[in-house]
Amino acid sequence: MSLSDIKNRIRKAEADAGRTAGDVCLIAVSKVQPDARVEAVLEQGHRNFGENRVQEAQGKWPGFRERFEGIELHLIGPLQTNKVRQAMELANVIHTLDRPKLAKAIARLAQEMGQCPDLFIQVNTGEEDQKAGVMPMAADDFITECRALDLPVRGLMCIPPVDEESALHFALLAKIAARNGLSGLSMGMSSDFEKAIALGATHVRVGSAIFGDRVAE
Ligand SMILES: *Cc1c(COP(=O)(O)O)cnc(C)c1O
Fold first, then answer.
1. Whose CA is nearest to atom 11 of ligand 1?
2. Given the DSSP bridges, would you call strands 184-186 and 72-75 parallel, antiparallel or unpaired?
3. What per-residue confidence (pLDDT) applies to 216?
4. Which is the closest atom of ligand 1 to the Cα of 211?
5. 205 within ligand 1 shell (Cβ under 6 A)
6. Averaged over 98-126, what is the pLDDT?
7. pLDDT for residue 104 is more than 60
8. Could you tell me the distance, in angstroms and rounded to a whole number, from the CA of residue 206 to the centre of ligand 1?
9. d(CA 184, CA 147)
10. CA 190 – ligand 1 centroid, Å
11. For 69, phi and psi rounded to 5 degrees?
12. Ligand 1 in contact with 87 (CB < 6 A)?
């Protein structure tokens, strides 16, 4: 696979779903990929990238930003409260807001910094113990709480359980978003992004299908 193949598949999925071409933001997930692979994708003009660790992102993106204009960085991994400042300085979008303590930390720093990345609330649609995210039953209240803090909540994000039909989780996420008046849906990865687009994804997070297997994982 390559960047252009993935973009073509996204265009087709948009058309099949009766959606406008270009509706879906492709986030190229570059975690643990060698710089040369990331650079090749930047050279092709792509600008939206996803990282799941703040420290790793800090190591590689300031340098790329000096060389390439208009990079949009999406933080898609769990965020610890002691890394919030760095995350907010680095990322344009944070997809993993999932608890009140984190919401309060972001709100406090947004005041101080006078800016805030766009935010997606992560929902643990599979109710898995080991996975981050607010439980589906608690999502409405948490969304309300984040809005009361004046946080720029744009949508919801999920990572379905590996052994379950992801469409069910995408549909659940879309339902929670709709009843809360949220338009953003960050869902779908290499193996299921077309399904996610059919169910309303606005942001798909695709790693290995663009870059190849992750070497260090
Ligand atoms: C790694 C990762 C992806 C990309 O996974 P692929 O299967 O390589 O496309 C998407 N979302 C999150 C949250 C990830 O951590």
1. 205
2. unpaired
3. 54
4. 8
5. yes
6. 98
7. yes
8. 6
9. 15
10. 7
11. -80, 145
12. no
How many A from CA of 57 to the centre of ligand 1?
15
Q: Is the CB of 76 under 6 A from ligand 1?
A: yes
Nearest ligand 1 atom to alpha carbon 31: 1
Q: How far is CA 106 from CA 84, 87, 118, 168, 188, in A?
A: 7, 10, 11, 31, 26
Indicate yes or no: pTM above 0.90.
Answer: yes
23-76 confidence digits (pLDDT tens):
999 999 999 999 999 999 999 999 999 999 999 999 999 999 999 999 999 999
Give φ, ψ of 131 to 5 degrees.
-100, 145
The CA distances from residue 66 to 70, 71, 163, in Å, are 10, 10, 41
DSSP label at 31? T
Decide: 59 and 38 in contact? Cβ < 8 Å.
no
The CB of 159 under 6 Å from ligand 1? The reply is yes
Q: Who contacts 50 (Cβ-Cβ below 8 Å, separation ≥6)?
A: 27, 28, 29, 30, 31, 73, 74, 75, 76, 95, 205, 207
Concatenated DSSP letters of 99-168 = SHHHHHHHHHHHHHHT---EEEEEB-TT--TTS-SB-HHHHHHHHHHHHHTT--EEEEE----TTS-HHH
pLDDT given at position 1: 65
Of all protein residues, whose CA lies closest to atom 12 belonging to ligand 1? 76
Centre of ligand 1 to C-alpha 52, Å, is 9
Q: Distance from the CA of 112 to the center of ligand 1, in angstroms?
A: 32
